[in-house]
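hi! just following up on the protien thing from before. the input was this:
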Amino acid sequence: MAHHVRTDYGDSDPLFPSKAAVFWYAVLIAGLIAAPYLLESYYLSQLVFIMIYAIVGVALNILSGQAGQVSIGHAAFLAIGAYFTAVAQKYGLPLVLYLPLAGVFTGIAGYLVGLPALRLHGIYLAIATLAFAFIVEEIIARWESVTNGNEGLMLPPPSLFGLKLGTEGFYYLCLLVTVLVVLAAINIIRSSTGRSFMALRDSETAARSMGIDTARYKTTAFALSAGITGIAGALYAHKMSFISPEMFSLSVSIDFVMIIIIGGLVSLRGAVFGAIFMIMADPLLIILKDQLPLWADMVTHGLYLPDSVNQAVQAGVSRVVNAPGLKSLIFGIIIIVFIIYEPLGLDGRWQRVKAYFKQFPLARQRSARPPRMFLKSERR
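and the predicted 3d structure came back as:
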């Protein structure tokens, strides 16, 4: 893989590494701006979900990919942002006020959750964040005077300066927030805070020996990640127009973890790739479930099997595609495959493809191999 030699801190993670990058990002932004006029409402809705999930992916990237802290309870932060939005709308707060306040309020909750991270590591920290997610879900279900319990809350359409945002207006709001979040994350990673996160991720002992306040940066990472997720929760609440406790279950947290595993743990671009994969996986699985019985029928008839065998095969295929745990099984297999064969996720594969074509026709096969990922206990 080709690497750029950096001789100055200003060269680290530039916003636009080349003129070609400026051009392609401009094309991407222009395409996203024109999307409401080119796409049907269904695809526009999918784009909104991709942007919301990408925001959460960026938040998890800061916490896990940059700071090395584990969380499998980010659905709780999404829930806090969503319910804060619902309550704020109920009391008449404007969008320009409650949207950033949702991030601030959720960030405070993330700071409190980050306090156990000062003593917990690895699987124990993951269990602590999971317990927090269960606690938040239970509070939402029990605090009926505020959250309306399991019956949920309806949200009116968002309005900006007295004007209700329609489908297109809400799309542009999500696009603006996504761009601002990504730009903020890039600048956080390039700053001294981001470098402290990376030192903390690579070796907490070495970071402490260099004078880095590890306790401060652990809680800061949780607060930043939670705050960004809270903003995504506000957008998610408006997109769904209805929120209830079961919408923020453990499976949602697992989906968020899958975003950074599939997209790439240490890449902000990977968060977008992972969000696209997660949102588009459901429609593709539905198409596969619809088409698989037809394909099986074509194969069995092509082999001229007896009718009894054809019926048995069709019955077996129908049971498999309608099994309740099929989606979880497929996603579990996908995670295992990515961890073993693509540890850097889709963004790592994209980087190797670009490196291959830059070196073509002199590229060697080794340059396409993914680098080995080391555990902290394996480092020398």
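Residues 20-278 form a domain with the ABC transporter involved in vitamin B12 uptake, BtuC fold (CATH 1.10.3470).
The radius of gyration is 23 Å.
cheers
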